Amino acid sequence: MYVERNKNLHQKHFAQQASFWAQKITMSLKPRRVDFSETWGKILATVRGVITLSKVPRPTWNDRFSDVYALCVAYPEPLAEQLYNETKNFLEQHVQSLYKIVNSSLDNLLATYHAYWQEYSKGAEYMNQLYGYLNSQYIRKQKLSDADLAYGHGIDLDEQLMEIGELALDIWRRLMIEPLKGNLVQQLLQEIEKDREGEQTNQAILHGVINSFVHVEEYNKKGLLKLYQDLFEKRFLEETGRYYRKEAGRYLTGTTCSEYMEKVIQRLSDEEMRSRKFLHPSSYDKVTHECQQRFVADHLRFLHGECHDMVRKDRREDMRRMYTLLRTVHNGLMLMVQEVEDHIKETGLDAISNITGDNLPTQFVESVLEVHSRFSHMIQKTLSGDQQFICALDKACSSIVNSRQDQRSPCKSPEWLAKYCDMLLKRSTKGMSESEVDDKLSASITVFKYLDDKDVYQKFYSKMLAKRLIQGNSVSMDAEEAMINRLKQACGYEFTNKLHRMYTDINVSAEHNKKFNEWMRENKEELGIHFNIYVLQAGAWPLGLTNPSPLNIPQELEKSVKMFDMFYKERFNGRKLTWLHQLCNGEVRTCFLKKSYIITLSMYQMAVLLLFNGSDKLTMAEIQSSTQMAEGELGKNVQSLVDAKLLINLDGKEQLTPNVVLTVNVEYTNKRTKFKIPALYQKETVQEVEQAHKAVDEDRKLYLQAAIVRIMKARKALKHNTLIQEVISQSRARFNPSISMIKRCIEQLINKEYIARSNDAADEYTYIA
Amino acid sequence: MADTGGDNGPGKKAADKMFSLKKWNAVAMWSWDVECDTCAICRVQVMDACLRCQAENKQEDCVVVWGECNHSFHNCCMSLWVKQNNRCPLCQQEWVVQRIGK
Ligand SMILES: [Zn+2]
Ligand SMILES: [Zn+2]
Ligand SMILES: [Zn+2]
């Protein structure tokens, strides 16, 4: 029967026994007198067979099972305690005799121990079943509950009764493992060292012996691993540390770091496999940790020494290995992260310092994006996309993007990035598809996010947006809106508020034009020209930085101005319109030539040209007095018409002095019938850039004041330093404010009575509702 | 090409217009019709929202109000002002709303 080692069969067998037992009880419920010696003699004979896994015939097993029952329920006294004591005696003797055999086979200790353990542990299970009735009816009932144990009651725990299976294991522990432990563990450690040296070992025996330390505590639910840990694991980890400390030392002599890392990674993975072969799962991580300490933590200086070169020479395989090793120890990665950050920064600064030529903005943005994408790819591929390296990439890119090209002037990057976007959003023959433009604009947000001075970018962006919208040379309104939304997503509603208002003004103007035309028809009025208008909201548009020249509106346009003014005043309350001549343009047709030309010109050029409808010849002084244009502006515009050969300077002098006489070129010819007189868009001057920066400063003051009001309204009272910190943290998304500027804004708000110095505490402000 | 000019030059009639206007692309800017660009209460330009509205992102709602005295302020600034003092801060006349911008 006990040759059936198979677990399933074994369980089946047990089930049979249970039903037999039930049957037996119904058969002989009545307790009877039993002769203990005689019955125990029979039980002992069978038990000797059971514990050594000899064959026990089924009827015999069944009889012994009832014998156990009979002793437990014997009349007049149950004999359970005697049975228990005799069984315990027997097991103790048995294990002691096994111990003698095992102990005397020293050269073969592990194998012998393992063989007997296999037999004994299995036999103990069967005995536990044979004593099923004793276990369930006698021992479990006598066993103290956990609660009793917890309260103590001064009971000697050694007197605790154990189920027979547990008893058997406990005896093994006491009488086999205890006296043998020194030898046992020493031999285990020797064998595992052999395994590490690549020699043959018997996995089944080693694992079996080691596992016996856990198995004997199987009934000890709370301290299952204690014996294993105290007896074996502790020594094993020490030994592991000793072994690999030596190994690491051996590797270090005469190898490159790269070779060292390769060997170590191999060793670590071998050791993980070894853990799985021999040890209890609770030890796996501890072993790995021990190895990492010996191979990595102990040699951080050596590994770190390699980071600089490896990162700069882009040795990807080494970087991957280094990352794999360093990440396992506390603070191991810090230095490598710093090296990566420095390297990205140097690469990026180098790339942008090399740009020359006329499309600096494009070169700048695309260099930064190239560096960003190259390293972000590397981090994903080689460094597992580790957050610490992504952080390093962000820091490096931020340093690159915000570096000043010239220490004496503000950083160019915001301006360049805005120009790059302008180039993409302007209709032109770039030969780029709509989706290419879209992708590039999306990518530009990556650079935008790194900008410290986002408000400077916004200032330049809004100026260029204004030009695109008014000159109507945007790729599409959809593309404009999409870009504004991208910025909004990256920096918030407030940041794009003015950009959005500009965009909206253009759309609302389309509506005005439609309504105006209907209104004219209703009023039976006609202008005789094609009239189109953009009405811009003051404040939202970055205009008025330069003072435009005054202009007397040509009489041909007077009616348009008058009618639209009326229309607008009817629709809105309290608004006035200012005509922005510098932004207007028009088309005129020539009537004095056989071939008729359609010419597009600026408002100023148009005003000059239309004067010649009244006279053949005009002096500069006459033109000036009719148009009221400023002298400089007038000169430039007349010159542009002379350059275009539409007007002739009859005096032929270089200078357009007040008495120079001009006339229309009546022999004008041009290959094209529709053309544009090059407008005098002044090249963006240095002053204009300076003005933009000055305007940003003004905006910052207003922004800071609004932020202070917002914070104070929410918090009612605040200490000076707290307020400053809050303001900085709220502003950081768009710029880094200077403390002195914040202080000035606080002073101004005190003057305007938004806030006041607190009477209760020094250094504190309160909000005034 | 050269022929176009030659024919017309001498035969030009003085009364005819030389250039006729076809199209005008105008640009105008609207602003509140006020005498003073700055709100005397909050000292922010009236075209910009007052500081409180900027702090709360209500720029769109911050309109201008004119009194019978023709002085103008942010409507929100004035509403707070009149709770304490029913006179125009600039001319001390009793504050009567003439119109509100839209
Ligand atoms: Zn105000
Ligand atoms: Zn307001
Ligand atoms: Zn007043």
| Rg over CA atoms of chain A | 48 Å
Determine the strand fraction of chain B and express it as a percent band.
15-25%
CATH topology of the largest domain in chain A: 5 helical Cullin repeat like
- Could you give me the name of the CATH homologous superfamily of the domain at 61-100 in chain B? Zinc/RING finger domain, C3HC4 (zinc finger)
Q: What is the residue-averaged pLDDT of chain A?
A: 88
CATH architecture of the largest domain in chain A: Up-down Bundle
Largest sheet of chain A: 3 strands, mixed
Largest interface: A-B, 68 and 49 residues
The low-confidence parts of chain B are 1-15
How much strand of chain A? 5-15%
Percentage of residues in helical conformation of chain B: 10-25%
* Secondary structural class of chain B: alpha+beta
Number of strands of chain B: 4
| E-strand count of chain A | 11
Q: Bound small molecules, which ones?
A: zinc ion
What's the number of helices of chain A?
A: 29
Structural class of chain A: mainly alpha
Give the strand order of the largest sheet of chain A, numbering strands 1, 2, ... along the chain: 3-4-8
Distance between the termini of chain B: 56 Å
Largest sheet of chain B: 3 strands, antiparallel
